[in-house]
Amino acid sequence: MKPRLIFISIVLPLILAFEPVLSSASEAGPAGISGVCSSGGVVVSASSEATEAGVRILNDGGTAMDAAVAVGFALAVAYPRAGNLGGGGFMLIREADGEENFIDFREKAPLASSRDMYLDQNGDVIEGLSTRGYKASGVPGTVAGLSLAHRGFCRIRWESLLAPAINLAENGFALNKETAKSINRLLTEYGEDFPGLRKFHAGSGDKAKEGNRLCQPELAATLRRLSEKGGREFYRGETARLIVDEMKRGGGLITLEDLKSYSAEIRKPVEGAYRGYRIISAPPPSSGGTVLLEILNILEGYPLSGYGPLSEEAVHLMVEAERIAYRDRARYLGDADYVEVPVTELISKSYGSRMREAINPDSAGSSEMKNHWKENSETTHYSVIDRFGNAVSATITLNGSYGSKVVVRGAGFLMNNEMDDFSMKPGVPNMYGLVGGRANEIAPGKRMLSSMAPTIVIRDGRVFMVLGSPGGSTIITSVAQVIINILDFGMEPGDAVSWPRFHHQYLPDLIYHEDGAFTDRLEKQLKNRGHKIKARPPIGDIQLIIRQGGTACGYTDPRLYGSAAAGGSS
Ligand code: DON
């Protein structure tokens, strides 16, 4: 178990009190976590049960892709706030022979959706309609994505990859403290309005407690159907019927036609270079890879390592790069199957250098509009490396914590509230304070823009780092900052993951920093440059694997309760 609160509230401020010592180097720093290392493969995820499921597959001779499918299904059971069957995600695969593919199983807007569906007669956004309840859901993609991964990239039988998830759902798993707490919060806030959530009652008392076993018999039955009949069952069989019935009961938009016409897609990852390393990451419909590469391209022209982590100069420049890249996200990014997205231009080195010219080295740039941020979010990332040289970086989500809160009765899983990731109205922020325009407006069958950024860093033609994070809009800055911590600041991986984070997303025009991350002195320096600053709860939850020689080491972010484990001989 990892002491997130102790770390952020006690350890971090103490360490940062010694800022002058830290400013030039990374030997000191937040008590870095240690890695779990092995030459037999490594799995890192937000749930120890899911990690264990993946390791078992690796030990049975499976590849990283086999393990990734098993981890995906296990997360749907053991990490219910974000793991899912009723949501979507992305999986980036780099095979040992250098082949690179990106599986897009992002949800799609239902065929009955329309551009202004969340606006009232006055053209104002109806509060809550895109975030809670039946109309908030896109057509789920996870089962199609995992089954496409299986068909295209796996060697172990489908049934064997679902077996650990079925076992966890049928026989239950012991709640950890954090999941028990989040279930209690969920039931208190939404239990009355969404009676299907009662499936999360665990144990005999009113409140879920650490150690209570959560069994999910309906979910187990659904997983069994999928295991016996294949992923198509979800879109055409009994499960599809249960989804459609549930939608009809509550006034949702998803029909059988939506489910039958859903398909996951194999795309090419976006790719770029940073300080001699190759980076591959998520293409549209995610903004993740594009914004990440844009930030890194801009920063490549500055001597960040000379400035040092959390130095006034480095923070200023990183914030300005983030401001520009998130501005472009708002302007240009959307589902490239529907709109033209200028990815090649945005991730080019020449664009990065033009953007550098627009940055004032001494004072904050401007973001024109005001904005706000509502938070109640959860996504989850996992990384896998096997002993054969394959690597998988996957991020999956329901969007908000426990998605739309609608449980499909008889099927035992939650639906997503991913429709909120569309731009409801130009300039009106979504749950993450993100704005967008035409490129990300709603259209039937279109995929909503994402920030998820499953990423792989390659050195000399071999996988060097596999990483990603949840955190809505902060996903991209979390991934960028861990890469920078390692490649620019030379931090040990455990320090790089633990290191305090900050975030700017163009709008609102604020630097968010993890509470306690900025010293008073740094805050004053940045304010003098014209920055506005706000503390907020922890940013991101990185799951990192780093490989050196034949050994891979996994690191799970101390901000949450994930787990890294090794396969084979460790
Ligand atoms: O796709 C996206 O960008 C969001 N739906 C991700 C949500 C998320 O990361 C919430 N996590 N804390």
Broad shape: globular
The residue fraction in helices comes out at: 25-40%
Which structural category fits the helices and strands?
Answer: alpha+beta
Using only CA atoms, what is the Rg?
22 Å
Bound molecules: 6-diazenyl-5-OXO-L-norleucine
Number of helices: 19
Largest sheet, order of strands side by side? 1-20-19-15-14-9-8
Mean pLDDT score: 92
Major sheet characteristics: 7 strands, antiparallel
In terms of DSSP E residues, the strand content is 15-25%
Low-confidence stretches: 1-29, 369-376
Strand elements, count: 21
The end-to-end span amounts to 21 Å
Descriptive overview:
This protein is of the alpha+beta class and 570 residues long. It is 35% helix and 17% strand. The chain has 19 helices and 21 strands. A seven-stranded antiparallel beta sheet has the order 1-20-19-15-14-9-8. It has a seven-stranded antiparallel beta sheet with strand order 7-4-3-11-10-2-21. Helix 6 packs antiparallel against helix 8 and helix 12 crosses helix 17. The longest helix is centred in the middle third of the chain and has 21 residues. The protein is globular, with a radius of gyration of 22 Å. The two termini are 21 Å apart. Bound molecules: 6-diazenyl-5-OXO-L-norleucine. 6-diazenyl-5-OXO-L-norleucine (DON) binds next to strand 10 and strand 11.
Write the layout of secondary structure elements.
Layout: H1 4-16, H2 19-22, E1 36-38, E2 42-45, H3 48-59, H4 64-78, E3 88-94, E4 100-105, H5 142-153, H6 158-171, E5 173-174, H7 177-190, E6 213-214, H8 217-229, H9 232-236, H10 238-250, H11 256-261, E7 265-267, E8 270-274, E9 277-281, H12 288-299, H13 304-307, H14 312-332, H15 343-346, H16 349-358, E10 377-385, E11 391-400, E12 407-408, E13 413-414, E14 455-459, E15 462-467, H17 474-487, H18 493-498, E16 502-503, E17 511-514, H19 520-528, E18 533-536, E19 543-548, E20 551-556, E21 563-566
Parallel strand pairs: 17-18
Antiparallel strand pairs: 1-20, 2-10, 2-21, 3-4, 3-11, 4-7, 5-6, 8-9, 9-14, 10-11, 12-13, 14-15, 15-19, 16-17, 19-20
The structure holds 6-diazenyl-5-OXO-L-norleucine.
The site of 6-diazenyl-5-OXO-L-norleucine has 14 residues, from strand 10 and strand 11.
